[in-house]
Amino acid sequence: MLASLQQLPVAWQTVGLLLLSNVFMTFAWYGHLKTLGGKPWIVAVGVSWGIALFEYLLMVPANRIGATQFSVGQLKIMQEVITLSVFVPFAVFYLREPLKLDYLWAGLCMVGAVYFIFRSP
Fold this sequence. Notes:
This is DMT family protein. The chain contains 5 helices and no strands. It is mainly α.
């Protein structure tokens, strides 16, 4: 299975790993607001660190693989776009936050960031 994943283009490997790592990151950073609201903050920190371990196990390889083809700036902007793409559905469906037009405006700003960071070779 790992060998077949390594045959994917670098961009797909990078984006896939970043996407998965951001799911863990979002739960680590914000999931405790729903599930551990009544617990002491130190409990939330411990649980979040445990979840974040899986984020790092995916994020570090994503950046190492991605660095073979992308600049650090490109990797960072990719990660930010993916973060917003994961966060908005998480906020709306898991945390039951209202869907705001501001998410669209933030997304459009990210499109601009993607354009500028990827426009030159």
